[in-house]
Amino acid sequence: MKHFITGLELTKNEVRNIFDLIEDIKTNPILYSQSLKGKSIVTLYEKESLRTRLSFDIGINKLGGHAVYLDNQNGVIGKRESVKDFALNISTWADCIVARVNQNDTLVTLSEHSSVPVINSLCNLYHPCQALADFMTLKETFGRLDGLKLTYLGEGNNVSHSLMLLSAMFGVNFYAITPKNKEPNKTVFEKSKDLASKHNSSIQLSNDILDSKDSDVLYSDSWVSMGDNTTLEDAKTLYQSYQVNQKLVNFSKASAVLHCQPAHRGYEITSEVIDGNKSKVLQQAKNRLYAQNALLLKLIGKI
User: Fold this and answer.
1) Domain check: are 67 and 119 in the same one?
2) What residues form DSSP beta bridges with 203?
3) Is residue 133 located within the same domain as residue 121?
């Protein structure tokens, strides 16, 4: 049994197999329509969600499975009863636990005590399902991953961490361009650099927007992470120069622009860019469903 917490639980070959499986599910959906027949997946949410909730719920249904939604109306995880007891009880009934939580520690405890796979659908440190969908989108767009330059702009956060780790695994040259003191987590950065040294890729941190030059991909995310009480107007003072706009797209020479959404138009990205011909944002969102379905089949299916 494997969990999927950081994303590194899967080897490079296993992720490649998931990409192949995504392509086959898209091409031959009827072959997979009963792949999770009789399987029940509990989806836990401490955080609000649109894309994660719908892509998992609809995706599980397309595979013939049953998605059970649990939100905070059942009490904050670990408050009404321990996270350990949550895991022990749920895994007596369900075939998998998908959890979108505030803290990575919650996922670690769930995985330690669950007898079924636990999938991280978002936490404070990682967003690995998003990264799977993003890299599938890049593979579809460029026909390759090795040697691409992916430039992330904004706050060093869970999305940047997962992109960094998968970039290191697949030979993508990753740049995180952030304001000073808003860089990605140092531990994740060092882990990514160590992994990159084995796969002929480069992981770089910068505060200089000029380092976006000669990028293949620009990646934007919200200036304010979910749960942060900072207003967008307050964040604008710090992040305005990191906005993904047409001027930056032209300067960087990027041929693709990604954003994990929700997007705040006119702040971290302009409408001109997100609606433009280089935007792959809706393709990313669509690939969330297929990437997660392939992951579920890998962890609890017969594939």
Assistant:
1) yes
2) 174
3) no
Domain that holds residue 247: 129-281
Radius of gyration for the alpha carbons in the chain, expressed in angstroms and rounded: 19
Residues 141 and 241 in one domain: yes
Q: What confidence tens digit (pLDDT) does each residue in 55-101 have?
A: 999 999 999 999 999 987 655 687 889 999 999 999 999 999 999 99
**Enzyme catalytic residues:** 100, 127, 130, 221, 260, 288
Q: Assess whether 122 and 142 both reside in one domain.
A: no
Q: Assess contact for 201 and 149: CB atoms under 8 A.
A: no
- Per residue in 272-282, pLDDT tens? 999 999 999 99
- Residues in Cβ contact with 213 at an 8 Å cutoff, skipping those fewer than 6 apart: 251, 252, 253
- Determine the distance from the C-alpha atom of residue 106 to the mean position of all C-alpha atoms in its chain, rounded to a whole number: 18
User: DSSP E strands: which ranges in 92-189?
Assistant: 96-100, 118-122, 149-153, 173-177
Asked whether the predicted pLDDT for residue 13 surpasses 90, the reply is: yes
- At 303 the pLDDT is 65
Choose among 135, 166, 132, 165: nearest CA to 292: 132
Handedness of CA 245, 249, 250, 251 (dihedral sign): positive
Residues paired with 284 in a beta bridge: none
Report the domain count for the chain. Answer: 2
My answer on whether 213 and 104 are in the same domain is: no
The CATH number that applies at residue 29 is 3.40.50.1370
Do 120 and 199 belong together in one domain?
A: no
Q: Is a pLDDT exceeding 70 seen at residue 21?
A: yes
Q: Which strands, in side-by-side order, build the sheet including 118-122?
A: 66-70, 40-45, 96-100, 118-122
Same domain, 82 and 144: no
Model confidence, pTM:
0.96
